[in-house]
Amino acid sequence: MGISLIHRLREIPLAFIDVETNGRSARTGSRVIEIGVVRVEGGKVTEEYQQLVDPRRRIGLEITMLTGITPAMCLGQPTFAQQLPKLLPLIEGAVVVGHNVKFDLSFLYGELRRAHVEVGGRLGKLPVLDTLRLARKRFGRGGNSLGPLSRRLGIEPVSAHRALADAKTTYLVFQELLSPVGGWELTLADAFLHQGGPMHLETEPADLQLTGGLRV
Fold it and tell me: Smallest Cα–Cα separation from 93: which of 28, 40, 43?
């Protein structure tokens, strides 16, 4: 089933994603060291996926201090390309949701490019929702990183700076952010409006611009 702007959120699958990385920028060669996905259908979690990844790059002490992920933990794990057969079915056909999702997507695009997977051909024009943008529309700027935002909403974070835990927290935050305006009964078009405009998984993250003029 294709995704339409008039579908309610409970009628379409959503894939909450998070990645941990060995650096700050995919454009300068940093790589994914862990990926987590929470697949949600009908507003309920149907599948979870977490995988450490061998980045074939150095994992510095500062990353280990932040995430708890050591080089030894990633040694012998699959490369990003090797784990793709498990990852892609969780994302295909779903609205992609993340917190500051352009960061996660920049790494996802980089890894898919290295694996010779063409994003548009394999995943198509998937809608994208960003809980950071939703939070800024509701609360303004400041204090909207995932940990402080979740506590502001009365949610104790599952953990911090581990991929699946952050994806789970993003799912809980998403529900709380949209609950006052319709929750899972909200249409995708209205969800786009509440984040300031539509985003789609069809171009590089730098080009994931918010635009107006929604047409249903």
Answer: 40
Helix (H, G, I), strand (E, B) or coil at 81: helix
Q: How many domains is the chain built from?
A: 1
Dihedral sign, Cα of residue 115, residue 121, residue 122, residue 128: positive
- pLDDT tens by residue, the chain, 216 residues: 588 999 999 999 999 999 999 999 988 999 999 999 999 999 999 999 999 999 999 999 999 999 999 999 999 999 999 999 999 999 999 999 999 999 999 999 999 999 998 877 777 789 999 999 999 999 988 889 999 999 999 998 777 789 999 999 999 999 999 999 999 999 999 999 999 999 988 655 555 544 333 322
194 is catalytic: no
- Cα–Cα distance between 17 and 144 in angstroms, integer? 18
Q: Looking at the domain assignment, is residue 3 inside a domain?
A: no
CA torsion sign for 216, 167, 159, 34 is: negative
Q: What is the pTM of this model?
A: 0.91
Judging by DSSP bridges, how do beta strands 200-201 and 126-130 pair with one another? antiparallel
- Kindly state whether residue 101 falls inside one of the protein's structural domains: yes
Residue tagged active-site, from 7, 99, 161, 200:
161
